[in-house]
Structures are given as C-alpha cells and as structure tokens.
Design goal:
The structure holds two protein chains of two kinds. By secondary structure, chain A is an alpha/beta fold. Helix content of chain A is about 35%, strand content about 10%. The termini of chain A are far apart. Chain B contains six helices and three strands. Chain B has a single domain, classed as Alpha-Beta Complex (Sufe protein. Chain: A). The termini of chain B are far apart. Chain B is α+β, with helices and mostly antiparallel strands. In chain B, helix 1 packs across helix 2 and helix 4 packs across helix 6. Classes of the chains: A alpha/beta, B alpha+beta. At the A-B interface, helix 2 of A face helix 1, strand 1 and helix 2 of B.
Chain lengths: ~300, ~170
C-alpha cells in the first residue's frame, strides 16, 4: 500500500472549496483553451495564460526574473501564498504552470486533483466574476534552470550515456508514424520518432478518466515497469514540455523521485535539430516493407 | 470589417466570442456539399471541417468556359471540436462569407478576420483564430482543383468514376 511521497501537494476539489475564504490560498487557472476561464471559473481563481504571460515573447524561453516578478505582483500574489493550480486537459497546463513557478522558486504550490473537469462534474459553483487584488511586491531570488530543467546538450549526453528518458507523447508520435495527421497541416518538427533509448509512456497513463492521478501503487507499476526508477536521473519530454511537466509532477511529488528534469525544448527542438540521433521505428518498418516489395517484384 | 470593436472593449469581445461558441451559427453537416475540407492544429487538438456549396453563377451548361469570378458561396457549414476561439472563429467566419464570391474570400487577409473576432483577445491564440479561414481557403482551392480536373477529364484519386460530363 502506498501513500504519495508528498500527499499535501495534491489537493481535492472539496479542500479547495472549503478554503476559498483563506486569503493566503490563491487558486490559479491555467488552460489550453484560453477562454474557458471567462465561461466560468472556481470562485476567486486568478487567470494565468501560460503562453502569453509565462513565455518570453522574443526568445524561446520563460520570462526573465524581473518580468516574472512584475507579472506575479500584478496578479496580487505574495511570496508566502499557497498557490493551487488547476485547468483543463487533465491539468496538463496547470502542471506546466506549477513547474514554471517552481523554476522561479515559489515555495508552496499545489495541484487541484481532477482540474476543471472534476470541479464541473461535481457541480461545484462557477463564477464569471474576476476578483480584483492589490498588487504585491513579489520577489524572486533567482531562477534555477538546473534542478528541474534540462537543455539540449544535457539531453544528448544523457541519451548517449543510456540514462532514462521518458517520452510522454502518444504512441503514434513516439513510433514516428505521426508527424502530421492526414489532411492536417504539418507542424512542429521536420523529423519524426523519438530520442534514442527513450521509453514511451504516454502522460495520460498517469491519470484516471476523471482527470485525477492514479494511486501511488499504480504509478509505481507503470514507471518502474519500464525501468524508470527513483534511483536514477530521469529526463522527461513531449512536444513543448507541457505534457511532460504532468509526468514530472507525478514522478517528483507523487512517487518522490529525487531527480527528474523536464526537457522543455522537447520534440519541437529535437525533431528540428541538425545532426542529433533519432530512433524512428515507423521509418524502419517502411524501409523493410519497401525492400520486401522490391524483392517480391524481382522474383516475378 | 476592420475596427469591429473599440479598443479596450475586452468584455464585449469576449461576450461575442462566447456567444458564437455557445450558440454557433451554421454548424452541422451539409448534404450535397460540393466540397468538404478538414483542417487542424495538431499541436492543440483544434479540428474543423468546412463544407461548401458553390453557386457557379453562369447558369445551366456552365462547364469549362465558366467565368471563375462568378463563383459564389451558396451555402457553408462547419463541424469540429477544439478551443473556444477556434470554434467561435468558424461560426463568425461563416456569417461573414455567406454569398461572397470565391475570389473575394481567397483575398481575405487573416488580419481582417482577427479584427472581426476582436484582436485584443484573440491575439493570444492567432493560430486558433485563423484556422477557420485557412481551412476555408483550402476548401476553395480544392473545389477549383476538382472542377479543373473534371473539365480536363482527369479522375481524382478516390473519387467515383464520372459517368460523363456533369454539365450537359
């Protein structure tokens, strides 16, 4: 039987509703669909647009320290606030926001288990009212880009040394079959496949259908079953690092792995990067089929 | 179409988008459509299908000699799923282009649609905002390709064999 390694980091919808009048607990909504908040949100929730507010608009990176301080101060968030993140898509973007706030060293962050989906399914109150808060003096000591974040060269070395990599994309993306969906515009990467040696463990495997995380025992079976164990240095990735932050959260806080890093460059970087090794099972398969067809034709 | 909203009128823009998302216009299949086109943003899961009926405007017996400028959108419907902005954009677009000549639609700039949606809000998700227009333009190109191929007597792959010229 197992409890989560850090059970207090995952809170239930009932807990959030009970604590809605606590001024030191601030709920933050982070969604993929950027107009969901306007359609109704958890009372008191602060809207966070991970794309326009957390990302640097010029460089492919997160905001710098000063911009982050201004952003968070403007939202009325204080350094000693407990932040509870939630959102759509099984909390993908909530986990991404959580990860980003941890990058900047925010002490107390939580995830509301089940996200928007569960809150709505339980018919808890939604509001369109936006709470106004006076700005604060939020301070960041420094951004730590080493503890929970991995960069291209580190990932290459990691792969060449055969260390554990977790690819959390869909099986079609992992196998190289999916670079673009038929009739849909190609997007993101010039090459398909995965980083050599990576284990394909889709992020959704960590979730139940209602959006909540699976139990510690179930999670352990899933990841340890593929050789991704707590004694190792693990790097997770997807397309842009948002689905993988969901897995990063599960491994770090639910299973207590001491060293998990999110490779936010992910496949949009690796699949476009000149010269790096790529494993593409689908291409290998196509090649074999072509050879078999040619051999078949030759014998006729 | 530009300047549809006053600057700073965020609430009105959001209300307009939510209205089209919750009560979409022209949503549904289009039996007897001349062309259907799929479009999507695989990165975020937005999907749109645009269905068109085209009125040639050249009268009966049009065929290869028909003036392309006379083609108009006789009917347009959309189906799909995805984020609020992508779906609301499709609903708003179908109201803008109904009855318009195909060439005019092809000449529509993304910026015009963005202004009609409310630039201040949708600028956060431009790809989602213009998916509808990109898919519609692709539908029109596909329609014209199909028409040209028919006129030249070529078969489209996957299309049933034509039984003869369709315009006699």
């Amino acid at each position: 039987m197992g409890e989560y390694a850090h059970p207090d980091v995952l809170v239930e919808t009932s807990w959030v509703e009970q604590h809605q009048d606590d001024p030191k607990i601030k709920v933050v909504e982070s969604d993929e669909d950027i107009l969901l908040y306007e359609q109704g949100h958890v009372p008191g929730a602060i809207k966070l647009d991970w794309q326009t507010e957390l990302q640097d608009p010029v460089r492919r990176d997160y905001r710098d320290r000063q911009a982050f301080e201004e952003l968070v101060s403007g939202k009325g968030i204080a350094n000693d606030d407990t932040l509870v993140f939630y959102g759509d898509k099984n909390n993908w973007w909530a986990c991404y926001a959580f990860w980003t706030f941890k990058l900047f060293g925010h002490r107390d962050c939580k995830i509301m288990n089940g996200g928007r989906q569960k809150w709505i399914a339980e018919k808890r109150p939604l509001t369109r009212e936006v709470a106004r808060r006076p700005p604060t003096q939020y301070k960041v000591r420094d951004r730590d880009d080493f503890k929970i974040r991995a960069f291209r060269d580190q990932v290459l070395r990691h792969a060449l040394e055969g260390k554990p990599l977790v690819d959390v994309r869909s099986p079609g993306e992992f196998s190289g079959e999916l670079l673009h969906m038929e009739a849909y515009p190609q997007e993101g990467a010039l090459r398909a496949g995965h980083i050599p040696g990576a284990q394909g463990i889709p992020w959704a495997t960590a979730c139940n259908p209602d959006g909540t995380f699976k139990s510690a025992d179930e999670l352990r079976k899933i990841y340890e079953g593929k050789g991704v164990t707590p004694d190792r240095d693990v790097i997770v990735y997807c397309r842009i690092g948002e689905r993988s932050s969901h897995t990063w959260f599960a491994l770090t806080y639910l299973l207590g792995y001491p060293l998990v890093r999110n490779y936010d460059g992910s496949w949009t970087e690796w699949g476009n990067l000149v010269g790096v090794p790529i494993e593409n099972p689908a291409a290998g398969k196509k090649q074999k089929e072509k050879q078999a067809a040619a051999a078949g034709a030759a014998t006729k | 179409m530009s300047g549809a909203f006053d600057e700073g009128d965020r609430e009105a823009i959001v209300a307009h988008l939510l209205d089209h998302f919750e009560h979409p216009r022209n949503r549904g299949p289009l039996p007897g459509a001349d062309v259907s086109q799929k479009g999507g943003n695989p990165g975020c899961g937005d999907i749109l299908h645009i269905h068109l009926k085209v009125e040639d405007g050249g009268g009966a017996g049009g065929g290869a000699g028909n003036e392309p400028g006379a083609e108009r959108i006789a009917a347009i419907r959309f189906e799909g799923e995805g984020c609020t902005i992508s779906q609301a954009s499709a609903s708003i677009l179908t109201e803008i282009v109904g009855g318009k000549p195909l060439d005019e639609v092809l000449a529509m700039a993304s910026g015009d649609l963005v202004d009609a949606l409310g630039r201040e809000v949708v600028v956060a998700r431009l790809k989602c905002a213009v998916l509808s227009l990109n898919t519609l333009k692709a539908a029109i190109e596909k329609y014209r390709q199909m028409k040209t191929r028919r006129a030249l007597g070529l078969d489209e792959p996957g299309m049933p064999e034509p039984s003869g010229p369709p315009w006699t």
